[in-house]
Write a structure and sequence with these properties.
Length: about 260
């Protein structure tokens, strides 16, 4: 008879799941280290060795585990954006989280002049003069008269109007979310210079510090540490994963998670 031991949250220091197992249904099954996942919000499953969901991402489906402590470091490996490290989860409607995010935005805007209010007008052109005798006395001209003449030529005139012309950019963000009674709000957002292939979120006291990385090995950090000080959070010992909406470069899977006690 085989023996399978599950480390309890009270003594476990590290939770690891690489999702390298057969496809699951109804939930992700046990983690790679044998620890249990709990279906906290919606349904997340393992398909083709990644954690994913068929639920609407606007509902932020979520799985969590009890780490036995309130301060941890959550390391998430995922391509694209939308993945979320779930923090201090009280229940399905009350939790904190840090999410990667992207959206299309106008950028590099500049004022550009263009012709407007155009119309046609006429001006005198091809002007000339002609001199002829005004009166004769026999063969003699008593006085001369000069007459002037012009044509009417059309012309096209316009005013100069100005408009803002913009390009479309796709910036990447790290944002702190909070769900209160099921209402999810983005409390703070940082811009990062590239897509995060992985990110680490550490909780300590009331602070939430995020480190984004351009590589899955977490050796090339994007920018500096990003710290948010939560206001009177209800801290719990439950942490996990979720996938939510991102307006651009939407990701639908997570390939690895490590949750460690901090410190």
């Amino acid at each position: 008879m085989g023996f399978f031991a599950v480390v309890t949250a009270s003594v476990r220091k590290t939770f690891t799941d690489t999702f390298q197992r057969s496809n699951t249904s109804g939930g992700p099954g046990r983690a790679s280290d044998g620890s249990p996942w709990d279906a906290t919000r919606g349904t997340m499953v393992v398909t083709s060795n990644v954690l994913t969901t068929s639920d609407s991402l606007s509902g932020y489906p979520m799985v969590t585990t009890d780490m036995g402590v309130e301060d941890v470091a959550v390391e998430v490996t995922a391509s694209a954006t939308g993945q979320l490290a779930s923090l201090w989860v009280t229940d399905s409607n009350n939790w904190w989280g840090v999410q990667t995010y992207s959206q299309a935005e106008s950028c590099n805007c500049q004022s550009q002049g263009y012709s407007c209010n155009c119309y046609t007008y006429y001006y005198q052109c091809n002007c000339g003069s002609q001199t002829y005798c005004g009166s004769y006395a026999g063969p003699y001209c008593l006085y001369y008269v000069t007459s002037y003449y012009c044509s009417d030529c059309p012309a096209y005139a316009c005013s100069t109007c100005y408009q803002y012309v913009c390009s479309t950019c796709y910036p990447n963000y790290i944002r702190v979310l909070q769900s209160v009674s099921g209402s999810i709000s983005a409390l703070y957002t940082w811009t990062i210079s590239s897509v995060a292939a992985a990110f680490r979120v550490k909780t300590s006291g009331n602070s939430i510090t995020t480190q984004a990385y351009s590589d899955t090995g977490m050796t090339s950090q994007i920018g500096s540490d990003l710290t948010y000080n939560a206001s009177s959070p209800t801290k719990t010992k439950r942490f996990g994963l979720s996938i939510g909406t991102s307006n651009y470069n939407q990701g639908t899977s997570i390939s690895k998670v490590i949750i460690k006690r901090n410190p």
